[in-house]
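QA checklist item 7 of 12: single-chain prediction sanity check.
[x] sequence parsed
[x] length recorded as 472
[x] structure emitted
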Amino acid sequence: MDSFAKDPEIQKHRWLILIAVCMFTFMSTLDGSIVNIALPVMSKDLRIPMNQAEWVVSIYLIVICALLLLFGKLGDAYGKIRVFKIGTILFTIGSLLCGLNSGLMFLLGARTLQAVGAAMTMSTNNGIITEVFPFNERGRALGTIGSFVALGSIAGPGVGGLILAHLHWGYIFLINVPVGIIAILLGMKVLPKDITLSKQKIDKTGSFLFALVMVTLFAGVFLGQEIGFIKIGVLALFIVALVSFIGFIKVELHVERPVLDLQIFQNTSFTISIFCAFLIFVANFFFNVISPFYLENARGLAANYAGYVLMTFPIVQVVVAPIAGAVSDKIGPKLLTFIGLILISISQIGYMFMSLATPMWIFMLFVGLVGLGNGIFQAPNNTIVMNSVEVKDLGIAGGINALARELGMIIGISAATTVLFSSMSHTAGHTVTSYIPSQPGLFISGMRVAFMVSLVICLVATVITGIRLLRK
């Protein structure tokens, strides 16, 4: 790490390196959330039912989760920058193929290639920046990456709505191609050659079992939401996931060089920060799933105006995160994570009291508040994660950090829809699986229950972080 931090040539380009890394971080996270808003148009254009169209979103998230740990480990062994560069090329080619509109199976194949590239860049970005930036600037640099992650994962509906208002849905993917090419060329110019290579043997059995856990678990979750969780095929997927998980833990405890060294979780600072990041992404995706229903269905806003309202969150976060990172470099990150979590929790209380008559500026105030809370929380939390491990484990720490985020996204999406529709069904006295236009009040009651659950999730993270702060 020191040789990067002390090399004057690399230090001269460190902010350009950050820009190249951030461009890909933004695109790869954006592509997890931008497609949702285009699904109705895609299902009509490709002449497929909506539940098949949803696999365009699901397959991307599943493949990323399956491969993050492997690429984190490969980055540590053979070079984070090498893995990152290959990922940028695969992601850009995948984006180009996604935009060609050649039927569902071709699109799913292209989406898989795109996800492989995204997993390669996501698992190495934090590690590269931790190596390149000197200790006193690291918080600000990781904060900047954190804000691009948040911007990408939450700006999807807004950006997607703007593209769809003027262009064919293929441009949702094609927009990545010119940006990708610029980032690749910039990376070729400024990214240094790797110097910390462990050359460790890769744990192939562990990597395979982990991928199998992720694929079967989330295929089971997504299929279960479509056809019901007690269908034999869905139960079989969950059983395979459970058996694979037990096998994975056994392998990791006995193999010499595990893909996931479970001892890393004995580091309480690392484990608490990863767990809190996971909880906050779950809570954020409760908001991500429910707010478009509230704005477009219950309040009757056009999709592009709903997009503008929701952009308050990422815009506030992008402004605040680098500042929070810089402050954490001066005063330490732990107090900031606690303050951020309190603000996020207050915003959930605000959402619980929203009604059909709430003035839009009040709703936007709470959307901005959650952006402020996330901006203050994410950057210092990333700093704690990356500073709490040794140099040789930076890749795997970055992989686990990205995995916590992606798992939070998937579980947040699944849990939000499950809680929302279960609560609506309970109130209505019969099964409800979508928004009922004639009964907006029914949706509002379900939304309140969902945000109550989301508040509890935020409070768990806040209490854990508060205890850590008091112990310090």
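[x] summary fact logged: Residues 203-258 form one domain.
[ ] second reviewer sign-off
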